[in-house]
């Protein structure tokens, strides 16, 4: 078979795995998904590359040692703390590894299925594994590409009649974020301290953030960078993307409102950004490609691309107060509503000649949909605290309280299977005194 038909076979909805948990239509990690991550476990604390399947992880170091994984470059890239060396091998290598893993896990392939000793060496239960930040991130950029979100924020903080600034429909607006504080799902996040400008006082006070918020985003990870001075063309941009994660761009709204003029957010965003641990490849997302919203006015030439460049990814946010049994779903939306595409974001980022590197993380911007309950931040859901949310176990929220656990979930729903991201979770700890 050709490489292309092998790739098509990995996306075939009828392909099932001998790992039965992967065949559950609500499990994020179907055999059609096969996302990459970094894990360790209690028997082996060495961090290494794994692939999620059902409730298991395939250990690629063990698979290669067993002679079951053929990597063209024949380099040792799996016994690593991060995916960067693997990603740097290039798209043909990611694709080939995903195809080989799919074939080994397919129901009809006996190699692992019928060999208990080999299975014991190459599979780790997710419940017994610890997941780590999957990439070393040289740079983190955050965009602002949801028209609904930008309109809501503009209406709240500036002028409802002119909510979108004139540049918004021309530029995929973004800023350079802080890579050092990107953490993996499960890492607790401390409420930040900072300058707060209270309405009744002339000067700011110093103290703990009182308006702590989430931002529901996705992120994409650069798989092939560009050299300084050599922009990435919009029509080629997707070939530079390794895959996607869920991203919570924690935001201190009161610190933000005081500091953001004229250069944008700083301390209000730099204290933490949480990402989900598994990187879902663009190959796995391909069956869920859909048209992006119509762009009017037509973007400048360097931002144009033919065809469909959005993806149908369902998104949900839940909030669970400290020790509560039940979490409340506070938002449901979809990535397909985003006005600017990932390809346009990357083309714009590099058009000046700015270089990108393997592992760079690009946040989508808060993803808000067209309805009141599809907003991707508490700022919008509660209209800056004016409309508290009712929680399912009782109580209300305007912004996040200490001990609250926020979880982002995201998945593409196929016919009988899911291509999901796993959870992106963070609990808020009290501010440092
Ligand atoms: Ca953001």
Key phrases:
six-stranded mixed sheet, SH3 type barrels, 26% strand, alpha+beta, 2 domains, binds calcium ion, 12 helices, Fumarylacetoacetate hydrolase, domain 2
Topology (elements, then pairings):
Elements: H1 3-11, E1 36-41, E2 44-53, E3 56-59, H2 60-65, H3 84-88, H4 91-105, H5 110-113, H6 116-122, E4 123-125, E5 129-132, E6 140-143, H7 147-157, E7 174-176, E8 182-184, E9 189-190, E10 193-196, E11 205-208, E12 212-213, E13 216-222, E14 241-248, E15 251-252, H8 253-259, H9 267-270, E16 273-275, E17 280-281, H10 282-285, E18 289-290, E19 310-311, E20 314-320, E21 328-334, H11 342-350, E22 361-363, H12 378-381, E23 389-390, E24 396-397, E25 405-413, E26 418-420, E27 424-429
Parallel strand pairs: 6-22, 8-16, 9-27
Antiparallel strand pairs: 1-2, 1-5, 2-3, 3-4, 6-7, 10-11, 12-15, 13-14, 13-22, 14-16, 14-17, 18-19, 20-21, 20-25, 23-24, 25-26, 25-27
Helix pairs in contact: 1-4
The structure holds calcium ion (CA).
Enzyme class: hydrolase
GO molecular function: fumarylacetoacetase activity; metal ion binding
InterPro entries: Fumarylacetoacetase, Fumarylacetoacetase-like_C, Fumarylacetoacetase_C_sf, Fumarylacetoacetase_N, Fumarylacetoacetase_N_sf
